[in-house]
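Aim 2 progress update. The chain analyzed this quarter is reproduced below.
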Amino acid sequence: MNFPVLKIGELQANIPIVLGGMGIGVSRSRLASAVANEGGIGVMSGVHIGYDQPDFYTHPFEANIRGMKDQINIARKLSPKGIIGINFMTAMNRYGDYVKAAVEEGIDLIVSGAGLPFELPFFSENPKTKILPIVSSERALKLILRKWDAKYNRTADAVVIEGVNAGGHLGFKEEEIINHHFSFENTILEVKHLIEKYQDKYGKKIPIIIAGGIFNREDAEEAFKIGADGVQMSTRFIGTEECDAADAYKEVFIKMKKEDIKIIKSPVGLPARAYNNKMLKDIENGIKKYPNKCTACLKECYLGKNMYCISDVLIKAVKGDVDNGLIFTGTNGYKIEKIDTVKNIFNEFRNEK
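Predicted structure tokens:
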């Protein structure tokens, strides 16, 4: 089958693939711009995006704002005609300030999940910046769109539906993930019915992008057959030269086996899917992993509240300490067999002439 063009307002992705934001630092300017240059949508993770700024541990907010602006500008220079977005978790401390800064810097779109982004339109008033909620159910989307419509006279520019096979934080209960109590086909039908009235009211199409378990062309074709307008891919792009993580991080996926992937409880308050390394085994054995300093990444967290600091272990991992860091992965992470290029991956998804 030939894939459709993904249109989000005036933005047009000739290949309907959205890079999922992977944090901390796994998808920044290099990977996002590479995806955008191939005709997809390059999305960076906005969580502690300034982790490598010299004053990060003394002034984390200022370092993150500076780092975010730097990364947006680098991505723009590397992909001047591409679509560049950023992902913000609603659980982030100072969420609104980060969204505002990204909008001021001219980001094309903002993707937001890990909670219900009720206030996203308030912080993203410029209509040129498209806003995309990430949800795992029609019920969650209904709450978001109702709030946006009533309070801000705005609706979603596109919707990301994330299923149980995604990596990182998941919008399901643990038993729902384990027992696969989720159907993309049913959820898409429910969402299509829900968004009809908002499409009519605002006079625009609201594309549906599905995420979680999309690894190859066959997976994408199945998604489009059941009504998706686009697909979001994350884990597959870790195994690329352009991925912003350290080489040691990427090598983990080449060695990874299916049984190495497990569901964990994250300090964010959500279940998550990750690689079962030494760090997670230490936590399971009751060994606490407190950092030297709290960088105030989450709204409702403080030093010592949890067994480990999620920012601390994610930063360790992205820098290459794969034993003591946390490595998120989708269910198909073990399928990565080599370090490839973004171009080669996109060649798999190009339409036949």
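The chain has two domains: 6-245+336-347, 259-331. DSSP finds twelve helices and 13 strands in the chain. These observations will guide the mutagenesis experiments scheduled for the next reporting period.
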